[in-house]
Amino acid sequence: MNRALAEVSLFGLVLVGCLLTVALARRWRAEPSTDGGYARERRRRLSLADAKAAAVRWTTTTNHREIGLLYIAFGTVAAIWGGIDGMMIRTHLLTPEATLWTEGTYNELFTMHGLTMLIFFVTPVFFGIGNYFLPLLIGADDMAFPRLNAVGFWLLPPSLLLARFGIIAEVTGAILAVVVPADRLSVLLAFKEPAIGWTVYPPLSLAPNPQTNFLLLGLHLSGIATTIGALNFITTVVYERDESIGWANLDIFSWNILVTSAIIIFAFPLLGTALLMLLFDRNLGTTFFAVEGGGPILWQHLFWFWGHPEVYIIFLPATGLMSLILPKFVGRKLFGFKFIVYSTIAIGVLSFGVWAHHMFVTGVDPRVRASFMATSIAIAVPSAIKVFNWITTMWNGDVRLAAPTILCVGSIGLFIVGGVTGIFLAVIPIDVVYHGTYYVVGHFHLILMGIIPLMMFAASYYWYPLLTGRMYDRRLAIFQSSLLVVGSAVTFMTLMALGFLELPRRYATYPPSYSGLQVVATVGAFIIGISVLMWLYNMLWSYFQGTPVETADPWELKATEQFTPEWQWFEDRLERERGIPPSEPEEVRPSYVPAQGERPPSLYGRIVPVAKRVASDAGTGAAGGFVGTIALTVVLLVAVALGAFDLEAFATLATFVGLPANLALGYGLFLAGGMTVWPLLFLSLGEYLPGELTLVTGLWYATVIASGFALAFYTGQSGLELVTYVLFVIVAHWIYGLGLAGTIAVLGGRQRRPSTGDDG
Amino acid sequence: MSSDDESTGSGPEPPATDETGPLEPTAASESLVLTYAAPFFGVVLIAVGLPLAIVGGYVVVQDGIGLCGAPTISATPTDEYEGALATIETLPAEDVSAAERAALEEAIDSPLREATVDGEVTNRAALLEGAIVEYEGQDYYVQITSQNSCLEVAPLLFPIGAIAILVGIAGVLTPPIYRKMAGFEERVGRDRSD
User: What domain of life is recorded for the organism (chain B) (predicted)?
Assistant: First the structure.
């Protein structure tokens, strides 16, 4: 089957679907209502003059928000294009043999899928979000260099067309061939999408295909655009901040864009240089990467010196969005703000020191490999810091059901799996086994898909009211988000399973025994595809049909003092344009902020209160444990009298710690445990058990630990004797729980921590 | 989904928020099964139906419009291999079929060095392994790069997949359909009571 025609047809189908959605939404908005009401706005035909004015406006704008929207639109188009590539890859892999498309076509698909997604989708969308919101977040009027900003964006469309000229030429040639003789189309038919892998490794990339030259030029141009954008972001953050915004209160998203831009400044010029060297090799006879010259491994070093920082260039903005959005939907401020900033900077620096882990199987000196293994494992630490802080932010928070919440929580889960599997791959012996398998594909897709696009979707939902003045369909959004998380998990976990079974990647064919898992992965990919189309529909339809927002605080951010500057800007705009007054929440509670005195206390000053709290907790716990254990003992004695409990069990307990089997020693040990271990566990874990009252929590706690007691002190009872034993154990523990919790409550031990209290 | 209801313009648009903040995405009276579970299974059915319909449909049309069977070959001058082909078998020119020769000529002229063999492939086994073929005084390393194999699955997969997709679409559209039906019954009930 002609892959180019199939791909362009699918792309056209999505485009027509979008246009149809827009047309229907506009039409229904303009029609008078059936109940005799009036149309809300006059229907107006789009004239040529309007179209021309709009074209001039959008192509010449230097407004950061409009350029941001252009970036996002461009990135979305690229995502659809690359996404269709991805769906075609998965369709191809439905059958073990290369039957739907040829082997060459499969190679083209995975080459261009990777490049389109990494270069033309992710970075432009994040630059778009940055362009729109970063100046608003830092109180700047615009980006530092508005015209350069426009130039940076307008370099991208030609770079995408250059990179994907192969498919454009192929389809144009196929259409023209209907009316034009084939020999006159030989120039067009000579172009074919490169089938060399997104890493463009020589000597494969030196193979004769004129389109490879255009691809390299397109990549180079996009690199220039990205560098221009990064320079602009850095200058904007450094010089255009409002007076009230210092480094200490610069928002977390701007921090991430700043560090990302810094990485770009160091990484992309190197990619540009390497691309030019490869172009020279292909066209001017140089031998930078030829076997007889610098060698193909030189390309790998240069490529991955850009390539691994590139991973963080596309990852860090997603973490910035996570750190910004997650707290808004759990009602708590970001936990460990400073440490997240430090981890971001650490990732930025370390990202330049891990590139050779992509080359463990190339015969790099083992000593060099070992050092890269160490740095690759080390870079997991700052990423883990972020994850721990996100989880802690959610802990005890007021988690609300919304699409961004589902996407944030889902992302954390998928990222943990993707990240942990990456740590395994950083270990040389594991990498040697799994390097060329689907394990790697599963690992990096769990990050590339698991957190990056998910955070883009979360941002689109979070800021949709601000961007459009309307609310999207929230039910559809929740449904779409859930589908996306499920689809991603099914698809990429399955790829990991295929990798564990050591199925090699980048092969168009595979043994039939793997076909079951390949079909499951394809079904998962189609779920992702359907959910993306649902998102697209929701965004377009709601732009015309969504309910207009009547407040600048649709997420109740004021209630938790998280009404950030971009929403303040939106509030001013709503009041100015639609006369909607600022809203005030009925109740305001501070989100959790670590206690900060005017001067941080000394180490001694910090230890003393902790030590006092520990002593107090231990004292009340011991007292409660004593009361509870004595009460429990009384109940157990009744069981002894009934023959359901054997006191010898206490004697056996003493032997576990090396003491002789003695009843008194065993009971003493039991009492000591009841006064120390179990009360301390209760004090530590009690707040996570159900029950608003301490006594109720005590009952839950006792129920849980009763099962352990029942197993440990079982002495062979059976029948009714066993039933009695179990009942008495449960009742005895409830008595213990009540005694323990009641005493602690009376003595004023640690209370349940409020979710948003000041005491943390 | 809910927008469908609002789009009919049957009354003033409800605000996205009220004085207490944003409205919950799902009202307490709504069935979670119909709002989320039914469309979820609908999407799963569509995602399962698509592969079935694609392979079932493809197998029906592949022969009719010539989508398979003609292998692709590549032809590279042996000079570029610098002696690395010393152990490769040479295919005598007289053994090459007309279709193979035509494809060889086309591949030599093509900038991509590839062409499709439209006709009898008499040396399939040799070309799969790769062989040296002499053409107009120049030796070429010729190899089948793709067999363009034909798909072999039961055509019945197509209707099964299509039905799964249709049922799946019904599942996805369950919430708006249910709301329309509920609205209809409410109106009917109101009319009767009037």
Answer: Archaea
Choosing from A219, A242, A265, the residue where a domain stops is: A242
Q: Residue B77 above 60 pLDDT?
A: yes
In chain A, which residues have their Cβ closer than 8 Å to the Cβ of B47?
Answer: 487, 523-524, 526-527, 530
List CB contacts of A618: < 8 A, sequence separation 6 or more.
Answer: A676, A680
User: What sign for the dihedral angle of Cα A89, A91, A93, A98?
Assistant: negative
A456 within a domain of the structure (yes/no): no
Say how many domains are in chain A: 2
Entry pTM: 0.78
- Beta carbons within 10 angstroms of residue B105's beta carbon: 14
Question: Phi then psi for A201, rounded to 5 degrees?
Answer: -65, 130
When pLDDT is averaged across residues A654-680 and rounded to a whole number, the result is 86
- What is the phi/psi pair of residue A365, to 5°? -50, 130
CB distance from A88 to chain B under 8 Å? no
Chain A hits for B16, CB-CB cut-off 8 Å, are 465, 470-471, 546-550, 554
- A700 has pLDDT over 90: no
Q: Which domain holds residue A635?
A: 608-748
Of B7, B16, B48, the CB nearest to A550: B16
Residue numbers of A between 519 and 538 with CB closer than 8 Å to B? 519, 522-524, 526-527, 530-531
Q: Which of A202, A225, A242 is the last residue of a domain?
A: A242
Among candidates A498, A356, A499, A378, which has minimal Cα distance to A428? A356
For A522, the closest chain B residue by CA position comes to B51
Q: Over 60: is that where the pLDDT of B7 sits?
A: no
Say yes or no: A550 contacts chain B, CB-CB below 8 A.
Answer: yes
Phi, psi of A248 (to 5 degrees): -75, -30
CB contact under 8 A, A554 and B35: no
Q: Is B24 on the interface with A (CB under 8 A)?
A: yes
Count interface pairs A-B at CB distance under 8 A: 150
- Which chain B residues contact residue A209 at CB under 8 A? 111-112
- In this complex, do A102 and B9 lie within 8 Å of one another by their Cβ atoms? no
Mean pLDDT, chain A, integer:
89
Q: Which residue has the tokens 């079932």?
A: B56
Inter-chain CB proximity A585 and B24 less than 8 Å: no
Give contacts of B6 with chain A, Cβ < 8 Å. Answer: 545, 547
Average pLDDT over residues A30-41: 53
Burial zone of A82 (CB within 10 Å; 0-12 exposed, 13-18 middle, 19+ buried): buried
CA distance A201 to chain B (A): 18
Query: pLDDT at position A607, please?
Result: 75
Query: To the nearest whole angstrom, how far is the Cα of B101 from the nearest Cα of chain A?
Result: 20
Q: Which chain A positions have a beta carbon within 8 Å of B112's beta carbon?
A: 190, 192, 208-209
Per-residue pLDDT at A189 exceeds 60:
yes
Phi, psi of B20 (to 5 degrees): -95, 0
Residue A396 falls inside a structural domain: no
Average pLDDT value for residue range B114-141: 89
Question: What pLDDT, in 10s, does the model give residues B153-185?
Answer: 888 889 899 999 999 999 999 888 877 777 776
pLDDT in tens, A92-132: 999 999 888 889 899 999 999 999 999 999 999 999 999 99
A240-280: pLDDT as tens digits? 999 999 888 899 999 999 999 999 999 999 999 999 999 99
Closest CA to A138 of A568, A592, A581: A568
The burial class, CB within 10 Å (0-12 / 13-18 / 19+), for A554 is buried
- The DSSP output letter for B181 is H
